Amino acid sequence: MSAPREPATLAGPEVATSVRTLQNYVGGRWIDSAATNFGEVRNPANDQLLARVPMGGAADVDRAVQAALKAYPAWRATPPVNRVRYLFALKDKLERAFEDLARICTTEHGKTIDESRSSVRRTIDNVDQAIAIPTTIQGRAMEDIAHGIDCTTMRQPLGVFAAITPFNFPAMVPMWFLPHAIACGNTFIVKPSERVPMSAMKIFELMHDAGLPEGVVNLVHGAKDAVDGILDHPGIAGVSFVGSSPVAHYVYKRAAEKGKRVQALGGAKNFVLVMPDADMDRAAQVSTESCFGCAGERCLANSVVLGVGAAYDAMVERLVSEAKKIKVGDGTESGVVMGPVISRAHREKVLGYIEQGLKEGATLALDGRSYKDPKNPDGYYLGPSVFTNVTPDMVIAKEEIFGPVLCVMKAGTFDEAVAIVKRHELGNASSIFTSSGKAAREYRYQVEPSMLGVNIGVAAPMAFFPFGGAKGSFFGDIKAHGTDAVDFYTDKKVTITRWF
Ligand code: NAD
Predict the structure, then answer these.
(1) Binding site membership of 427 for ligand 1 (Cβ less than 6 Å)
(2) What is the dihedral angle through the alpha carbons of 309, 456, 263, 395, rounded to the nearest 10 degrees?
(3) Rounded to 5 degrees, what angle do the CA atoms 229, 122, 477 make?
(4) Does the Cβ of 430 fall within 6 Å of ligand 1?
(5) Measured in angstroms, how far is the CA atom of residue 218 from the centroid of ligand 1?
(6) How far apart are CA 321 and CA 284, in angstroms?
(7) 307: CA distance to ligand 1 center in Å?
(8) Which residues is 273 bridged to in the sheet?
(9) What is residue 307's three-state secondary structure?
(10) What pLDDT sits at residue 384?
């Protein structure tokens, strides 16, 4: 391991407004992007301009790829046990920077500080899991596959990988991938969401301080042009993507066409099925937290409650009453349980869905449209909204709203409810609330979403279990996290040996 380096600075060239212009991290240094156009990073709680983000493209990506390719041979030859020592150092730095990172995450994203803390904990969990790679990367061997002939499999890294990440978990999602990929011996590029690039930059600052060799990890800012630069670059062996389903599908197709490995995690519309034998109070409380946590901007949010038989009426009243208790405001303030949505444009989009639901005949049992935070009149706030009498054919039941809007739907029987879930084109996560083991088992057996909760609101696999959905929520074969990550970031080389 190399000696600790000089601290890296995140400061970029100052512009007239004195708002910082963000830099890329390439080959162990913060450097200016070649971009000529820039986006804005704003604090959703109060609309304050935080930074200008360069909208890089193929030139910036190529610079990062060249640095990653240059670093690859030496990094690949570094024994895994030495590679993970950098991750031990990073873990220590992440623990020390825990509060700073949570605060950056809340400032650029808007989620509450407790939600940011949970996501930073999950970030560190992934570093912990990747530290196990000297064990999990091991191959298999068998003597005498034929007389005097032995066979071994060894896992080998593949080169340069890249991650393209969404806005909703700025610190955590890049780290669903990076620690695993580099511990396997690959070098890496992150293209964070242009809406929330600063949490990832803070982690890169910590990785720099942990002494990771130049070029092993790189960060490039941008949006579609940078993504296309990654998908088309011949020097990149594989891509991990997380974002909306249309973009996930596009990334999957374009990267696969260029012969890359791809895992593309897409959008979600997660149903929670409530059986008449469920503990209604708990089901309502947990589903409300699940739907409105992170202002509904969570791929694991339960966004549709499907009440079976008498459970429908029992849930409606409780859900509305639970949702009314939610305190909305600036996520840094104590007592606030729901922050703003990510942007003014996204707020408008969510409002559009509420209009759509009204037009289609759903009942707006709780209307959060007019919520304003008196202390932050420019923030992108919405109160919680609850639609009842929702039917499966409505747009609000079909499309991902990704905001604080809960849809409540009725099913006559368990089978009818299962059919509704199975008909939906997305399949990220789902939950069932019941006191019947048989119903829970049957639900797990029949429905496709790959992350399932039984009396749990957010079925979030931890870093040592596979993470990823099914149907239109996932394009690829190998999930994120755990030993799946080792499968994705390595090739299994089989050697068959005979000695004379
Ligand atoms: P998004 O699809 O708009 O953006 C994701 C990434 O793709 C960003 O880095 C963005 O710069 C890039 N991008 C956007 N449009 C592009 C285009 N046309 N061509 C190429 N690249 C493009 O997603 P988002 O709004 O940032 O994030 C929210 C979405 O992510 C939701 O749909 C949510 O369900 C999903 N998500 C899924 C998971 C999961 O595990 N399945 C986890 C988190 C978020």
Answers:
(1) no
(2) 30
(3) 50
(4) no
(5) 20
(6) 9
(7) 30
(8) 306, 432
(9) strand
(10) 98
The per-residue pLDDT for 18 is 75
- Pairing type for strands 187-191 and 24-26 reads unpaired
C-alpha 139/C-alpha 361 separation (Å) is 58
In terms of C-beta density within 10 A (0-12 exposed, 13-18 middle, 19 or more buried), how is residue 256 classed?
middle
Encode pLDDT of 54-111 as tens digits.
999 999 999 999 999 999 999 999 999 999 999 999 999 999 999 999 999 999 999 9
Between the CA of 243 and the centroid of ligand 1 the distance, in Å, is 2
CA dihedral angle for residue 409, residue 412, residue 414, residue 420, rounded to 10 degrees: -50
CA 374 to chain centre: 31
Which residues are designated catalytic? Answer: 299
Q: Report the distance separating Cα 485 and Cα 487, nearest Å.
A: 5
Select from 494, 492, 498 the least CA-distant residue to 155: 492
**Residue 402, ligand 1, Cβ within 6 A:** yes
Q: Nearest-CA neighbor of 403 among 459, 342, 456, 445?
A: 342
Whether ligand 1 lies within 6 angstroms of the CB of 426 is answered as no
**How far apart, in whole angstroms, are the C-alpha atoms of residue 45 and residue 453?**
31
Q: Whole-angstrom Cα distance, residue 110 to residue 355?
A: 24
Measured between its terminal Cα atoms, the distance across the chain in Å is: 41
The closest-lying atom of ligand 1 relative to the alpha carbon of residue 265 is: 41
Q: Ligand 1 pocket: which of 108, 244, 249 to mutate (most atoms <8 Å of CB)? A: 244
C-alpha span between 3 and 409 (Å, rounded): 59
Relative to beta strand 405-411, strand 20-21 is: unpaired
Residue 112: the pLDDT is 98
State if residue 193 touches ligand 1 by the CB under 6 angstroms criterion: yes
Residues of the chain under the 50 pLDDT cut: 1-4, 6-16
Ligand 1 atom at shortest distance from the alpha carbon of 192: 9
The secondary structure element, H or E, covering residue 179 is: helix 178-183
DSSP, res 407: E
pLDDT in tens, 216-236: 999 999 999 999 999 999 999
What distance in Å separates the CA atoms of residue 460 and residue 450, rounded to the nearest whole number? Answer: 11
Bridge pairing between strands 474-475 and 261-265? antiparallel
Rounded to whole angstroms, the Cα distance separating 228 from 403 reads 28
Distance CA 386, CA 320 (A): 7
Encoding tokens for residue 256?
């696969």
Q: Is the CB of 223 under 6 A from ligand 1?
A: yes
Give residue 328's pLDDT. Answer: 97
